[in-house]
Amino acid sequence: MDIQRLVDAYIIGLGDNADNSSLRQTLINRAYLYNTDNIVKGDMSLLELVQALGSYLASEEAGRRSKGAHVLSDVLTELPESAIPAQATTRLVQFFCARLSDATCVPHVLASISALQRLSSFTDQCSVDVLRALFKEVHVQSFQHSTRSTAYKLLDQIIQSHPQVAKMMGDDTVLGFAQMLDGEKDPRSLMIAFQIIPKLAKLVDIKNNADDIFDVVFCYFPITFKNREGDPSSISPELLKSSLRAAITCSAHFGEMAIKPLVEKTTATSQSVKIDAYETLTAATQTYSPEVFASEMEVLIEQIREDVVMASDEKVVNAALDTLEAVYSVVSPAAPLTSSAAGQTPEIDETTTSLDYVLKDAIFQLTAEEVKNSDQVGKLLLAAARSSAYNCNVVSDAVLPIVVERLGSTEVLTLRRELMDVLNYVLSASCDISRKAECLEADKDNLLNIYRLDASVPLDKEYSFLHITRLKGITLLILMPQFLDKNETSLALQTISRAAIERNEDENVNKEATHLLVQLSQSNPDQVQTTVLPMFFTALCEDMVAVHKIASLLNALGAIGVAASKVLLPILDGLASVITTGSLALSHYVPTITTIRKMIETTAATTNGDTVCPELMTKVVAPLLSWISESPDTGHQNQHSIVVEIAKATAAVFSKLDTETQGQYLKPVFDRYSAIALDPDNTSDPLCQLLPLYSALVCACTPQTKLPVEDLSRYLGGLASAALKTTSAVHRDVSFEIIAATINKANAGTRGELTKSVLECADKVESGVAHILLRHWLARALVNCNDKAGYECVRWLLGQITQGSMYSTEAAEGFNIILGNHDWSVTPATHGVFKLLSKQRFYATVVPEITSSFKSASDDKIKANLLVVLTHSVQHMPKSVLMSGIEDVVPLLLSAIRLTSGSLKAASIRTITMVVLETPDTLMSKVSSSIIPLLIGSLTYSDAANTVQVRQATLDALSLVPEKYAYSVIHGARRDVLRALVKARDDRKRLVRADAVKAYNKWLNFGDI
Hints:
mainly alpha; 70% helix
C-alpha cells in the first residue's frame, strides 16, 4: 500500500472511530526504518508523510485539517528519538507553530510539539518560536481540559529543559502564562499551573507584572474541591492546596497584595479556610518582607489570640500558633550577640517591639485578681518566645517578675497552678540552647524556690493538679541547657522519681511523673541511669510492697527502657539482677519477668534488633537461664508461668543470633536437657519442668543451624515416642513443638523422611490423645509450608471426628494448633517456613470437606465438633480469603453460634460481623430472621456460654447492623433489639455496659427522619 492510500485509510478510520492501531504501527514502522541507519530501509520520510497529508492539512474543511494533524501527531508521539532526523526537527517545529493559528488543529499540534520537545535537537530557538506562537495564537481557555492540560505541560517542559529561554523572554513569558491561566477551572490543570509559578518566579524578575500574575492566582484562594473516588486521574485536595500556597508565597513581590486578604481570611467561619490562611501566612514568612507583615500585625495577632482562646478546634489553634511564631521570627529584631556573649541580658527596646500585641494582654491577665485562660495565654507566650532568642529574652523578662511576685504573695492553690502553667510555657521556650533566655540565670533562686527541688517534700499531700504542674516545671529546669548543676539535677530527678514511685491519691500524678521520666530518659540518659533507676529497683525490693504498686513500677520501667535505648540494657540488667539475687519477693517474679520479656520482644522487633540481641543474650537472658537452671524449683505457685516467660524472652533474643552463635549455645543445652526429653519416665525430675526453655532455644534456631545430634531422624522419633508415653503435659507439648519446628525448617526431601520416622515411632505406641495432638503439630509444620503430607494429617484428624472416635472432641479442639499463634514453635519470628498462599490452600481444601461432612452427618456430637473445626479454621483466615465462598460457610457459622460457647462462639460472631462489614448483601435475607435473634440470645449474661468476650462481640455486631442495612430490611427486629440492649445496659461488666449504650443509641435513632 502506497503512502497516500495508507494515510487515506487511517483518516477514514478516524472518522468511523475504528481501531487504527495496525495502520498506525505500519506508518510508524515505515517512517522509523527510513529515518535510521538500519540495513533495511523504509520508503517514507517524515517530510513525505507531511506531503501525503497536504490535501488534508490545507483543506478548507476544519474536520479534514484536524484529522490530518491527528495522523501526524499519532506518528510523532510513537516514534523513538532516533527515528526523527535532527534537521527535520526545526522544520517540523516551524510547521506546527504556523498551525497553532488554526483552532481545529491546536489539540493535535500541541501534542506533536510536546513529542518534539523531548528531542535533543529541539533547540532554544525552537522553544522561543513555540512560546511566542502559543502565547499569541492560542486562546487556551477556549479548549477542552485535555488540550489545556497539554498546553500547561508543554510550557512546564520548556521551562525545565530550556530555562534560559523563559528567562530571556522575561515579561513576555509572565504575561503569556497569566493570559493562559486566566479563567481556568479544572483542578488537574490548576495543579500544573500552580507548580509553574514558583519556577517562573525563580527564573524571571516578575516585579513589573507581579499584579497580573497575582490576580489570576490569588482568585483561587481558598481552593476546595472533592476528588472523584476511583478516578486514577484525580488529585489530592491537600496537594492542590499546597501547590496554590507555594504559588502565592513564591515571590516577595506578592507580599503587599497578599497579606491583607490572607489576614482577612483568618476571620472566616470555616475552619478549613482558617487553617489554610494560617498555613499560607506561615509559608509566606519565608519570602515576604518583614515590612509587609508589620502593617497587619495588630489585626493578625488579635485574630490569632481570639482563635487560640476560643479553642474551637485543635487544628486551628495549632495553625494559628505556628503562624504567630513564624511571623514574630521575621518581624522582630535579632538578639544582640555582643551582650549575650558577655553573659549579660540583652537590652530590650520596649517602644519598638512588636511583641507588645501579645505581652500587653498577657500581663493584663497575669496581674488580674483571677487569671483566666492561663493555658491559652501560655501557648501564645510560648509561640512568641520560641520565634527567636531576642523574643525569648523579651517575653521571659516581661513575664518572669510578675509570676514570681504573685506566686510569692498567694497561697491559693488554683491561682498558683495557673501562674505556674504560664511560667512552664515560658520556660519551655528556653530549653533550646540557641534561644535560652539570659535573664533566667538571674532568677534561678526564685525558680528553685517556686518548684522546690527538695525531695523530702511530702508529695502526696499537695493539690494534685498543682503537683503535676510543678513536676512539669522541674522537668523544664532539667532540660534547660546548663541551668542546674549536677547536684540540683540529681535532686530534681529524685523528686520526679518519687512522684512516679509513691502512691498518690490521684493516679494522674504517677502517670505524669512516669511520662516526664520517659522524656528525660531520652535527653538525659546518663543521669536517669545513675539517679532514677536505683530508686526504682529499691522500691521493687521493698518488703510488703503492694501488687498494684509493683505493676506501676514495672510499667514505668518498661516505658523508659523502650523509649531510650541507652537505658534499656541497664533496666533489663537491673531487673534480671533483682530476680537472680533473690532480692525480689516471690509474688513479684512473674510480673517482673513478664516486663523483661515484653521489653526484649519490643527491642528485638526493631530495625537494630540484630545488633542489640547478642548483648541482651549475654547480660540478661543467659543470667536468667542460669538462675532458673540452678534452682529449677523456685517454690512459686506459678513456677510454670515463670519458665514460660523466660522461654518467650529467650526465643525472641535467640532467634536474632547468627548461626554460629546459636550453635555455641545449643551444645550445653542439649547436653543438659536432651536425655530428659528422650526419657518418658523422668517426670519427677525438676529439670523436666524447665523443658520449655529447651524447646524455645531449639525452635528459635535458623534453618541453617545444625542441631548437635548424630541422627536427626532418630532423635525426632525418640522425642515422639517419649511424648506419647509420658504422663507430663509439659514434656509432651515441648516434644511436639520441637518436632514441628524442626520438620517445618527442613528441606523438602528431608522433611518427608523426618515425618515418616516420627509417624513410624508413633505407631509403635498405644493410641491415645497424644497421637491426636501429634497429628495437629505435624499438620502445623507441613500445612504452613504447603507440604501435601500436612493435608494427610488433616484428613486423618477429620476422619477421627466424622467416625465418632473417642478422641473426636480433642481432634476438633486441636485444629487451633494448626493455624493459630504460638509463642515460639513454627512462627515467622523464629524463622518458621510459611509458603505463599498456604492459608488460601488450607481454606480451599479443608472448608469444603467440613461443609460436606456437616451436611451428611446425623450425629449431633459430630456436627458440633465439625463446627468447632470450622470456627478454628475461619478465625485465622485473612479477610480476602474468607470472603471467597462465604455463602456456603455462613449457615455453619450460625449453627456454631447456637452450639458453641466462649472463645469459639465469639470467633463465630466476629466472622459474621466481618461478613456484615464487607459484603452485607450476602446476609440480607438472613439478618432479620436468623442473625439478629441469635445475637439477642448471645447477650444474656446469665447463660454460661455467653462470656464477656461473647457479649462484647455481639454488641459490636449489633452496632454495625444499622449502618449496613436499610430500615425496611430490619425494622421488624428493632423493638426486640432495643429491649435486649436495655437489659445489656445493666450488665455486670462495665465494658459491656459501655458498648451496650453505644449500640442502644444507634438503634434508638435508627429510622428517624
